[in-house]
Design brief:
Blueprint (H helix, E strand, L loop, with lengths): L2 H4 L4 H14 L5 H12 L5 H10 L6 H26 L3 E2 L2 E2 L1 H4 L2 H19 L5 H24 L7 H26 L4 H28 L2 H4 L5 H4 L5 H6 L3 H7 L8 H13 L2 H20 L6 H14 L4
Antiparallel strand pairs: 1-2
C-alpha cells in the first residue's frame, strides 16, 4: 500500500493544510513570495503534518487548532531545507532547482529566515506554554545540528555515535516534535504525548538512515540528484561509516573530495556496497523501527495508532 493511502481518511484535513500553507506564504515582498512559493511547490511528502494530525487523534481533535501546528512544523522543515541547500551548495532538490540556484545564497537565507518566522507566528495560536518551550528548544537543537554538520564535513575519523547525534538533530527531532506537539494541541495527557515523542524520534532516526542508504542504492532519476551526493559533499553517513571498518576501504573513501568526477565516486559507491555496509545500515534502521513499534504498543487503541504502525513499517520497506 502506498504511503498516502495509509492516511487517506485525513485527505480533507490535509487539503486544508495545503491551502493554509499557500495562504501563509503571502508576504508583501514579491521576491520573498516567489522564493517561498518555489520551495512550497517543490512538493514533499508532508509527513510532519501527517504525524501532527495522527497524534491529535489521541485527544480532542479540532482541525482548526491542529492546522496551526501542522503548518508550523512543515514551514520549519521547509526553512531548514532552504538553509541546507546553501550549506551544501546544492543546485537541485527533488529534481528541481533550489532557491539558492534559482536566485542566490542571500535570497535563500532570507527566505529560510522568513519561513521560520512565519512558523513561530502561527504557533502563537496555540495557547499552551509547554508547546512553545518544546518548539523553541527544538529549533535550537536543529540549529546546533546544522553547525555540527558543517564541522563534520569530510571528517573521516568520526564514529557512528557522531552520525546518530547529527541525524537526530537533522531529522528525528522534528518528526518527534510533530508527534508531541500534535498531541499537546489536542490536550492529551503528558504520558501519552511523551510516548508519541519517542515514537516519532525512533521513526525519524530510521527514516533518515534509509534516506542515507538510498543515496548509495538509488539512481539519479529516483533521487532527483546524482547518486552518492551526500558523500561527495562530505556528509559521512551510516553506509560509509560501516564500510570504513575495512582499513583499505577507509583509505579509498578518505580520498573523496568535492571536485571528484562521477566515475571515481561511482567506483567508491560500488566498493561500499561490496563490504556489507548497506545490510548493516538496514539493520540499524530496523533497530529503530522495532523500538518505534514497541512504543506504539503502549498507546491506546485507535485508527491513528494503526496508521502510525503502517507508516513506520512502510518506511522500512522503501526501495533499496
Amino acid at each position: 500500500m502506498k504511503l498516502k493511502m495509509m492516511y487517506s481518511f485525513l485527505n480533507s484535513d490535509i487539503n486544508i493544510i495545503e491551502k493554509e500553507l499557500e495562504e501563509t506564504i503571502q508576504p508583501k515582498s514579491p521576491l520573498l513570495r516567489q522564493a517561498s512559493m518555489h520551495t512550497l511547490q517543490a512538493g514533499g511528502k508532508r509527513i510532519r503534518p501527517v504525524f501532527v494530525l495522527l497524534a491529535g487523534k489521541f485527544g480532542h481533535y479540532d482541525i482548526h487548532v491542529m492546522k496551526n501546528v501542522a503548518v508550523a512544523l512543515e514551514l520549519i522543515h521547509m526553512a531548514s531545507l532552504v538553509h541546507d541547500d546553501v550549506i551544501d551548495d546544492a543546485d537541485l532538490r527533488r529534481g528541481q532547482p533550489t532557491v539558492k540556484s534559482k536566485w542566490d545564497n542571500k535570497i535563500a537565507m532570507y527566505t529560510g529566515d522568513f519561513v521560520f518566522a512565519l512558523a513561530l507566528e502561527l504557533m502563537t495560536n496555540i495557547e499552551k506554554p509547554a508547546a512553545h518551550k518544546i518548539l523553541a528548544n527544538t529549533i535550537v537543537e536543529v540549529t546546533v545540528g546544522e553547525i555540527q554538520q558543517i564541522k563534520d564535513k569530510y571528517r573521516f575519523d568520526q564514529n557512528l555515535r557522531d552520525y546518530l547525534r547529527r541525524i537526530k538533530r537533522k531529522t528525528a527531532l522534528l518528526i518527534a516534535v510533530s508527534c508531541q506537539l500534535g498531541a499537546i494541541a489536542a490536550g492529551v495527557e503528558e504520558d501519552v504525548h511523551k510516548k508519541l515523542y519517542r515514537f516519532g524520534y525512533y521513526v525519524g532516526m530510521s527514516y533518515q538512515i534509509i534516506d542515507d542508504i538510498l543515496d548509495f542504492t538509488s539512481t539519479e532519476k529516483e533521487l532527483g540528484k546524482p547518486a552518492g551526493s551526500d558523500l561527495l559533499q562530505g556528509n559521512i553517513t551510516a553506509p560509509a561509516l560501516y564500510a570504513m571498518e575495512d582499513p583499505e576501504v577507509r583509505r579509498e573513501i578518505a580520498k573523496v573530495h568535492e571536485e571528484m568526477d562521477s566515475e571515481d565516486i561511482a567506483k567508491i559507491i560500488s566498493l561500499i556496497k561490496q563490504t556489507g555496509a548497506i545490510e548493516k545500515s538496514i539493520a540499524l534502521s530496523d533497530h529503530y523501527l522495532d523500538k518505534a513499534i514497541a512504543v506504539l504498543d503502549e498507546l491506546p487503541e485507535n485508527k491513528a495508532k494503526k496508521t502510525l504502525r503502517d507508516i513506520a513499517k512502510s518506511i522500512g520497506r522503501r526501495k533499496f
